[in-house]
Write a sequence for this structure.
């Protein structure tokens, strides 16, 4: 691509433009992006303005995605502040997020702030790519956001759970007598994703996991009206940590700490932890084989008896439903709706 680009810089003809366009769309630009930018720097000093002009043309006029990426690539090297609005628009498209996220810091004064703003606006793989580039931040606002929102995504949360836990210092954030509910909710999501593992970090890759889990459990024991996310997290912890051994020795985490799992189990089975995600039937009138054991009833909901019990009122994770359903901020009645009906979407 460098040769046709140089020809277009020297002589802006339709023929040279088509030659560059054909070269750009011939193959994926991602594998050669770094090498191309390195070579581009050799001709940059005397042609920066012209290269930026070409970049804007490709970024705004091209009808193929690879050509648009090429334009973004040029703006990341040769652009200026005037190009920021264009890049901020292109960054919202998942196909262009990585390229625009790398280009924007070069046309703005605040690299981390720019990346953080992007991370809050994009989802999917673009969200992952941007948050990964914040893994060394010392900005306390960004660290706090990473613990509360950073790992949540349309793609598996486990891709970012480890980065957010380490960068946000989850174990330290939980080391307070009282914490806000968004932090508690975020901690549940991170811990659960790490225990489940996946293509990125697992619980064994997070050195401070035992301390973080212990502190999370301590907060759960004191909290009220916990939602489904916490029930699932607690269930994961109960399965992961043997009740009679505390924290099972595992790789580098061995000996770091122990979980008061016996206390957690006792609190669950005696019904002292109240989960908000469903309204339990009154003892004797709907628990059936579960008797008065509240934890066993909750577990049955998750384990496969959800639909028979679905007549009892369930609430969404965030407590909100579609405004069009006329039930915003209210409980969801499983007897009135089903996935086969689009009534609540009208």
């Amino acid at each position: 691509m460098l040769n046709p680009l140089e020809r277009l810089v020297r002589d802006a003809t339709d023929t040279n433009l088509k030659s560059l366009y054909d070269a750009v769309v011939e193959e994926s630009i991602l594998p050669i992006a770094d090498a191309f930018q390195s070579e581009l720097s050799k001709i940059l000093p005397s042609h920066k303005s012209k290269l930026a002009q070409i970049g804007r043309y490709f970024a705004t006029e091209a009808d193929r995605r690879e050509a648009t990426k090429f334009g973004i690539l040029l703006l990341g090297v040769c652009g200026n502040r005037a190009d920021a609005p264009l890049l901020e628009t292109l960054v919202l498209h998942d196909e262009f997020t990585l390229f625009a996220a790398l280009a924007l810091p070069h046309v703005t004064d605040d690299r981390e702030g720019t990346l953080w703003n992007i991370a809050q606006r994009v989802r999917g793989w673009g969200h992952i790519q941007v948050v990964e580039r914040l893994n060394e931040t010392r900005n306390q606002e960004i660290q706090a956001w990473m613990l509360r929102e950073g790992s949540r995504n349309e793609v598996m949360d486990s891709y970012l759970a480890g980065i957010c836990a380490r960068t946000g210092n989850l174990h330290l954030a939980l080391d307070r007598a009282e914490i806000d509910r968004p932090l508690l909710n975020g901690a549940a999501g991170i811990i659960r994703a790490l225990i489940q593992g996946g293509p990125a970090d697992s619980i064994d890759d997070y050195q401070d996991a035992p301390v973080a889990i212990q502190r999370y459990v301590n907060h759960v024991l004191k909290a009220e009206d916990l939602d489904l996310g916490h029930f699932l997290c607690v269930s994961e912890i109960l399965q992961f940590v043997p009740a009679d051994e505390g924290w099972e020795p595992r790789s580098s985490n061995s000996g770091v700490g122990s979980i008061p799992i016996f206390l957690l189990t006792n609190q669950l089975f005696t019904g002292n932890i109240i989960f908000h995600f469903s309204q339990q039937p009154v003892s004797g009138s709907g628990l059936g084989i579960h008797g008065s054991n509240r934890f066993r009833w909750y577990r049955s909901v998750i384990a496969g008896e959800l639909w028979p019990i679905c007549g009892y009122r369930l609430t969404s994770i965030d407590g909100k439903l579609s405004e069009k359903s006329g039930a915003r901020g209210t409980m969801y009645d499983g007897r009135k709706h089903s996935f086969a009906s689009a009534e609540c979407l009208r």
Remarks:
- The chain has a mean pLDDT of 76.
- Residues 313-346 form one domain.
- The chain has 16 helices and no strands.
- The CA atoms of residues 269 and 295 lie 5 Å apart.
